[in-house]
Structure formats: C-alpha cells, structure tokens
Amino acid sequence: MRKPKTPPNHDHFLRFMTDKDRMLAAIRAINSPLVDGKYLHWDQLLRYSPPADLSHEDWWHGLKFQRMPTCTRLPLASKLGGHFSYTLVNLIPEHLHWIDLQAGGSIEMPGDIANENSRDRYIFNSLLEEAITSSQIEGATTTRQVAKDMLRTGRPPRDRSERMIFNNFVTMQHINEIKNRPLTKDIVFELHRLVTEETLNDPDAAGRFRRNGENIYVAGDNDDIHHVPPSADELNARMDAMCAFANGETPEEFVHPAIRSIALHFWLAYDHPFVDGNGRTARALFYWSMLHHGYWLFEFLSISHIIQKAPSKYSRAFLYTETDDNDLTYFILYHLDVMRKAVASLNDYVKRKTEEIQVIERQLRATATVNHRQLALISHALRHRDQIYTIESHRRSHNVVYQTARLDLLDLLDLGILTVRKSGRTMQFRPAPDIDERLAELTL
After folding, report:
1. Which terminus of the chain is more exposed, N or C, with fewer CB under 10 A?
2. 423: CATH
3. Any bridge partners for residue 77, and if so which?
4. What gap in Å lies between CA 412 and CA 431, rounded to an integer?
5. Do 236 and 302 have their domain in common?
C-alpha cells in the first residue's frame, strides 16, 4: 500500500490560529471532531467536500482544534520528540463499554464455552487459529489444513513457516500461564525467544535487542520505507518505560485497560526492538495485557484472524497514527473494531458448532452412548471425509489423558463410524467411507 499523504505542517496551523477570521469561520462550521461519524485522517479528508467555503486545510485545522480538548497524552515518546496521545471521541467509549460487557467481568459465558467438557476444545481451536493467522500475516506460507494437522498430531515442524506457526502456538499457551505476572523486560525477551526460535537467520538474535548496524525498517509493497524505528541505543530505556506503562505505573491519569493493551501492541511495533518477530511479539503482548486485566474471553479469540482479512487496514492504522502528530486514535479505533469483530466471530462459531452437535446428538441420543468428545469428532468427520485422527490428536484437542482418547476412538471404530490402519506404531483413524449410512443405522 502507498504511504498516506502527510497533513499540513505546524507552521500552517500556527498561521491558521493567528488568523481570527479564518479560525472563527472554521469553528462556526465545525462542531465535532468527526466527519460523518468517522475519525478521518488528512489523506481521507481530501476525498470529502469541505463545509461552508472552507479550504481543505482550514477544515483540517478546525477538526484538529475540536480534537484537542479531549486529548490524553501517553508516556510513549516519538523518536522525533513529543509523545503519542489519543482523543476520546464518542466512538471509543461506546466500543469500550461493549467490550467490557462482552469480554470481561462475571458475564454469562457464550454457549458451549460455559461447559467445562467442551471448553478445552474451544481454547485449543482459538490458539490454533491465532497461531496460524498471526504467522501468515508475517509471511508464513503453510496452508491452514497442514498447520492444523501438525498441531493436532504433535508432529515436529518441517520448515520455517511451520516452525513460525508452532512457535506462535507455544507462545499463546505460555501467555496464559504468565497472565497474572507483571510485565518485565525478561518476559518480553522470553516471548520473543518463543516466537522466533529456529526461524531467524541469526539464532543469536532471539531474545535480545537489535544492535547498531542491524538496520531495521518497515517497508511497503514497493520497498518504499514506511517506518524507521528509534535507535538501538534507546531501546533499553524505552522498554523500561513500556513495562511501567503495561503494569499501570504510568501515566497518573486513568487509561482504560483495553486502550492500554492496544497502546502496548502499538508501542512494541513502533519501537521494533528486535531484528525480526516484532509483529508477532506485539500481538502476543496485547493478549497478555487483555488477559492480565481480566478480559477472560480473549483466551478464546483470534484477532489475527480478523486482521488477516484486510491486512492493509492494519498497516494503514499504524501509518495514520505516525503521520498525524502521533495521534494514536486511528490505531485505537481500528483495533477496537477488530476486537468487536473477533468477539462476534467467536459467538457465530460457538453457535454454529453447538447447532451441529445438537443435530447429531438428537439423532444419536436414543440409540447410542456417545460422549461429547465423540460427538465433536463425528461432526468434524462429516465435514472432513479425508481427515486422519490419532489418539494423540484427539487427546490434544480435548485435553484428556491418553487412555480416555484411545477408548473414545476404539468405541467409534466398533460402531463402524471410523476405520483404522497403522503407520509404524501409530494408529490412524479415518471417517468410514459409509459414515452416513452407519450413522443412519445407529439412529433407526
């Protein structure tokens, strides 16, 4: 994507502020920091017609004048001086209230997530989805099905793309283990090591800051430079400040936990403290922060799944922020929208899976004794006729012991729902070619 046009500079704004006639005309014509309910960047504003007889420049400065009174300064410093800040426009409290209700506190869990028997399956699928899509955003080329098979069966990664996905999966599991601990530099380094293990050209670069001479920058599609991060000499102090912010030690005024989590995501991506793996580490820190602040539903969500659908919007949110006086509002609004879509996607997924299993359950309840794990496998097998199941993959998917998984599969084999063959010492189960007829016979 192209880099957005840079807004008029401060000299132009100062001339606007000292020209009373121009300023009053803009104030009379503009009574909101939004345009058609949107928080527009200069690059977007140019596509709209200004109100009254204002020029685009005066319209822009009038909007900036409206945004200033509710501006909150954050401790994240720009490499050029000054600090990042955000404007609490009406859209943000609405999003935050919705997220508070849907993802935190003691609200009722959606659907099967409330059921301890199926809860582990949803956690596993969420971790799997985030591991795959977060890696694909950063260039992993492994197909979704191959990646799922790798993680479900527990086989070792065979190439760099598979290793990226495997690392992300392990990292997401680790985040849940450390969610109650305060963030430290060592934790950030450990997350980076987990994310990048055996994927870097220089293995020594895992879990350490980039050094002077390791010239890191973010480029666009045509190799034009979009972002040059702060100097390596600043990284130690900047990460100390980032950890203090993550732990709520700064700033003095209240920052909503979701905004704090989003800002943490942006902070690490902006500093780009590592030679590679910055995006994956930044998203991992976002998850740590949301779980740390009690937003338990994020254990089941994949934000990367939403980001991957429109990656240019993700990049543009970073660029809008950096090109407009370090205004983090653009990235916050984008990220809040991603979070809401991730929650909605989870609810749709839970509803769909619940309905699928309920249909099968109704058919089998009166004629066969099949537990919830077996019902889930049958549902999956009906949609994936070539799928291979192993005792280990079934054990991992449902977080049960080996013997329980083995008995589940052998029971389905006895019912004729699965077939089996050996590959070495491993028993490989597949949906029976006549699975529909077998299930029909069971429900007669």
Report:
1. C
2. 1.10.10.10
3. 83
4. 10
5. yes
Say how far apart CA 174 and CA 194 lie, in whole Å: 9
Q: What DSSP character marks residue 274?
A: S
pLDDT band at residue 219 under the 50/70/90 scheme:
confident
Per DSSP, the three-state class of 428 is strand
Q: Report the length, in residues, of the chain.
A: 444
The boundaries of the domain holding residue 213 are 86-347
For residue range 324-364, what is the model confidence (pLDDT) as tens digits? 999 999 999 999 999 999 999 998 888 887 787 777 777 77
CA–CA gap between residue 387 and residue 338 (Å, rounded) = 32
pLDDT tens, residue by residue, 148-172: 889 988 999 999 999 999 999 999 9
Note the pTM of the prediction, 2 decimals: 0.88
Cis peptide before 251 (omega within 30 of 0): yes
| pLDDT of residue 13 exceeding 90 | no
Confidence at residue 221, expressed as pLDDT on a 0 to 100 scale: 75
Q: Are 191 and 284 in contact (CB under 8 A)?
A: yes
State the residue for tokens 């993959």.
393
Q: How far apart (Å, rounded) are the C-alpha atoms in residues 66 and 84?
A: 18
CB crowding 304-326: b at 16 or more within 10 Å, else e: bbbbbeeeeebbbbbbbbbbbbb
Compute the average pLDDT of residues 175-182: 97
Last residue of a domain, one of 347, 374, 390: 347
Task: Identify the three-state secondary structure at position 327.
Answer: strand
For 88-131, write each residue's pLDDT tens digit: 999 999 999 999 999 986 555 555 565 665 677 788 889 999 99
Q: How far apart are CA 440 and CA 437, in angstroms?
A: 5
In angstroms, the CA 216 to CA 231 distance is 10
Distance CA 242, CA 185 (A): 9
Tokens of residue 277, six digits = 């793996």
Which residue from 391, 399, 441 is spatially nearest to 417, judged by alpha carbons? 441
Cβ count near 244 (within 10 Å): 15
Residue 430, SS3 per DSSP: strand
Are 227 and 196 in the same domain? yes
CA atoms of 357 and 372, how far apart (whole Å): 8
Average pLDDT (258-276) is: 98
Characterize 61-80 residue by residue with b for buried, 16 or more Cβ atoms within 10 angstroms of its Cβ, and e for exposed: bbbbbbbeeeebebbbbebe
Q: How far is 132 from 338, CA to CA, in rounded Å?
A: 17
In this structure, are 288 and 422 located in the same domain?
A: no
